[in-house]
Amino acid sequence: MLLDKVLPTYHFYVRRQIEIQSTPGHVFEIFKTLKPAEIPLFNTLFWIRSIPGRLLGQGNKYFVNDDSSLVEQGLRLGFVILDEVPDKEIVFGAIGQWWKPTGATFYRFSSLKEFREFDQPGYARVCGNFYVDTQTRSDGLVLLTHETRVEAADSTAHAKFKLYWRVIYPGVALLRRMLLEAIKVRAEALSSRF
Q1: Could you give the C-alpha distances from 138 to 52, 87, 88, 141, in angstroms and in order?
Q2: DSSP result, 27-66
Q3: Do 180 and 146 meet the contact criterion of CB atoms below 8 Å apart?
């Protein structure tokens, strides 16, 4: 997997898989066009995460309920597509101080090289992928895997992220499961038309 080359060592992770009756191409197209409103509880969970910032008058730094895709909104926030094999795997990443009460503070970068070489104290690198196992299966199912990895740059960032992770992990795990389920629903609906 490309993810193993981009961020081989990490401190925290979440991994989910789902089988989908579809083609790898359909699964990838749906991931790239999926809107936050199509994922159950997505907006609710990010609304909850934005409460401290809104209480302090800083608004919502996260996803908005417009017509843009999850990928488009992630890129606007500070995520970067780091590598991709069409219809098989896409790897994205961001660097930030995720634990800030008012919302993540992103470190802006633009390349895989910058992401790999980043080591500034007080930050954590987050890297995720969507990977479609393209092995032909007799039952027509495609296995979609989504993994998110986090590597803290130093012990202070590690301690802060560890506390943050304990608080948000249940929502992160639920969101990943709902995200994969939303992709499955759309992909199978699309595949049933052909």
Answers
A1: 50, 19, 19, 8
A2: HHHHHHH--GGGSTTHHHHHHHHTHHHHHTT----S--SS
A3: yes
Amino acid type, 130: F
Q: Look up residue 108 and give its DSSP letter.
A: P
Token pair of 76 as six digits = 């606007």
Query: Do 23 and 191 touch, CB atoms closer than 8 A?
Result: yes
User: Tokens 């909104």, residue?
Assistant: 73
- The answer to whether the beta carbons of residues 151 and 9 sit under 8 Å apart is yes
Sign of the dihedral through C-alpha 60, 61, 63, 64: positive
Domain count, the chain: 1
Q: Read off the CATH number of the domain in which 115 is found.
A: 3.30.530
| 144-179 pLDDT per residue, tens | 999 999 999 999 999 999 999 999 999 999 999 999
Containing structural domain, residue 6: 2-192
Give the amino acid at 156: T
pLDDT digits (tens, 9 = 90+) for 119-130: 999 999 999 999
The label of the residue with tokens 């929502």 reads 171
Strands (E), the chain: 12-21, 80-85, 89-97, 105-107, 124-133, 141-152
The predicted model gives 40-55 an average pLDDT of 83
